Amino acid sequence: MGAGAVENGGASVSKTGGKRQRLSVGEVAARSGVAVSTLHFYEAKGLISSERNAGNQRRYSRDVLRRVAIIKVAQRTGMPLSSIRRALLTLPEGQRATAADWGRLSAHWRDELDARIAGLVQLRDQLDHCIGCGCLSLGDCPLRNPEDALGEQGPGAQLLEH
Predict the structure, then answer these.
(1) CA-based, 20 to 30 A from 48: which of 41, 71, 111, 129?
(2) What is the DSSP string of 79-100?
(3) Spatial CA neighbour of 102 closest among 78, 69, 64, 80
(4) pTM over 0.85
(5) Chain segment 41-78, per-residue pLDDT in tens
(6) CA 19/CA 12 separation, integer angstroms
């Protein structure tokens, strides 16, 4: 800890009233609008990290607020946590994400989002056809899987995932 600072429950506070360098889990929750349990979940999944103080309480660097904001935006777009984690690993640890960092992340996610949008449009159009015809016959339905030939490729509607 630098000169002119005092320890206060694991957070450094300057004697001159400067800002705290470390935040408690409750402070991060209040400032980010995310439940404490969600922060613990994010940490368990490797999306954010904390340090422990002498009392074994979590303390977060201030950059975690930007990371949580990025996680929330990415989740809102439907990005899986694994993709979010990979993206966050490219950010400098302990430093706030910059506009350039965000631009790089959003450009990467744009490709994933475009692929998801194309898949959803295909699904919508195929469902419209099936619902429109009403027969759901195995002979004409684009959702068919005769003799379970696609079952070996995994669960779900395999014809729709391309």
Answers:
(1) 111
(2) --HHHHHHHHTTSPTTSPPPHH
(3) 69
(4) no
(5) 999 999 999 999 999 999 999 989 989 998 999 999 88
(6) 8
